[in-house]
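Hello,

Our lab assistant flagged a job as stuck in the queue for most of the afternoon. It eventually completed. Since we weren't sure the result was trustworthy after the delay, we are filing this so someone can double-check. Below is the sequence as submitted and the structure that was eventually returned. Let us know if re-running is recommended.
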Amino acid sequence: MLELLRKTLLKHQKSRWIKMSATWDEGGMGLTKVVETLVDQVNCNESSKIVDLGSGSGQLSIPLAKRSEIVYAVDISPPMLDQLVQKAKEQGVENIKPVAGSIEEVKFDPSSIDFVVTNYALHHLLDSDKQLIAKTIFSWLKPGGKIIIGDMMFGRGSDSRDREIIKGKLTALIKRGPGGWFRIIKNVFRYSLRFSERPVPIETWVQNLTQAGFENIDYEKIVAEAVIMSANKPS
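-- returned structure --
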């Protein structure tokens, strides 16, 4: 049953992101501070091998490729990767390898990667797959390798931070008028039924990484629901 659900959701996600790729860069993905902070935390060098999970059109992949050996840009949408390749070419970046596929299914050799980065992608995964990807990433990383996650991290109102985030989002959308009211209805469906958006609290990610074997787990609250979390595989 779980595998059937996963396949159905992956089919939906692929279709959704292929459609969104046409206008993705026009509106930008926003969250500039999250992207900049995440890139700054990757202390890579010219021999570093990096995996960018949910790369989109290259917000992380391109700047990181400029100071590393290779970046494997993983995305479920081939058109999104086409945009990434074109943008990289325009900037003279040639060391990005696009990998078309889902985060849940992509594979890399054990102990072959120095950094795994991801921004606003893992909250789409089923909760069981969030646990699994933490363990999978641990296996990819070299001893001393690092994972850095930028994502929305909050629950559904069980604590004061959750309630403050939800209140802020509702207030902002209400001020937009009918268009914002429609988005409230749509997001209630997404979050309450966890059909597309499945964020979990900071504590859950800490637990996922701890159980996978990571150490030196640290996190920084950036803006609203956005958090950057990092951890190391023991040397």
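-- support follow-up --
The delay was a queue issue, not a problem with the job. The result is valid. The chain has a mean pLDDT of 85. The two ends are 38 Å apart (CA to CA).
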